[in-house]
Structure prediction request, 331 residues.
Amino acid sequence: MKQTILSGIQPSGILTLGNYLGALRNWVAIQNDYDCKYFIADLHSITVTQDPKTLHENIKKTVMQYLACGLDPDKNTIFIQSHVHEHAELGWILNNSTYMGEMERMTQFKDKSAKQKKDSVRVGLFDYPVLMAADILLYDADLVPVGEDQRQHLEITRTIARRFNSQYGDIFKIPEGYISEAGARIMSLQDPSKKMSKSDSNPNAYISLLDAKDVIIKKFKKAVTDSENVVRYSSEQPGVQNLINIYSCITGKTATEVEKEFEGAGYGTFKVTVGEAVADTLAMIQAKYEELNSPENEDFLKDVYAKGAERARLLATPKLRQVYEAVGFIV
Ligand code: TRP
Prediction:
C-alpha cells in the first residue's frame, strides 16, 4: 500500500514562486508514488483578517493554481478544508489534549501576534496548530511535506497524537515530516532573511505565479543583493544565494555551475537571466490557469473539489466517529 502524504496551503492570496518551487512542484513529482491529499486551508486563513469577497475568489483561484501547476485531480485528493467539517470537529476534541503552555511556545504565533495590536490577536491564531494537527491526524497521514516554518507545528501534532493515544487507545498514526530532495526554501526578494510570502506587504518581495513577464523581470531587477558584484553561493551573500537557488531549481544546474555561468558578469545580467528563466516557467502555468479560469470550466472545477471532499470524507467520517467513541460520546 502507498503511504499517505497530506499537505495544505492557505488561500491568502495568489500563490508565489516560493509555494511553487518549495511545495507544489514537488507534490507533482510524487503524485504517482504516494496517496496524496492536498487541501486549501480556508479555515486557517481566517485567523488573520480576510475580506470575504477576496477570500472567496482566492479559494477558487488556489484550486485552479493547484491544477495549473500540474496536480492531477484523478491521482490526488484535492479538496477545500471547510467542505470536510470533521477538521473543525476534531480540532475541538484535540484542544482538550493540548496544553496552553506548549501552545504559548509556538514561534509562529509569537511572531505573528507580535505584529498585531495586543487586544486584537484572535484565539483562532493561537489555536491554529491544533487545527493543523486535526488536518493531519484525520487521515492517518504518514508523511507531511512542510517547510522549516511549520516544523514546530508538526512536532506538536506528534505530541498531541501521542497524548491522545495514551489516554484513549491507539487511534492516531504518528506522522513524520517529508523532506524532498528537490525542495528549496525560497526567500523574500526584498529581505533574504525572510521566507517569500504571499501575504508580504511589499509586492516586490514575492513573485506571484500569475505575474506578467515584465513584472517578473522588474521585481528581479529590484531584488536586494549586496555590493560585492560577484555571483557567489555564500551565506554572506544571502540575496545572491537566494537568486542562485531559484535559478538552480528552475534550470537543474548546480550552484557551482551557476557561479561559472555568471563569472565576470555583473548582477544586472544575472538578475535578468534569472527573471527570464522564471517567467518562461511560469508562462506554462499561466496558460493552463487561463484555460481553467473560463466560465466553461466552472463546472469542471466544482466537480474537482466536490469529488475531492467526497473522497476525503470517506476517511475523515469514520475516523472522527472512532474518536467520538473513544472519548465516550454517544454515536
Ligand atoms: N499551516 C500551513 C501553512 O501555513 C498550512 C496547513 C494547514 C498545513 N494545515 C496543514 C500544512 C496540514 C500541512 C499539513 O503553511
Observations:
- The chain has 13 helices and five strands.
- The chain has two domains: 4-183+297-327, 203-291.
- The chain has a mean pLDDT of 95.
- The two ends are 30 Å apart (CA to CA).
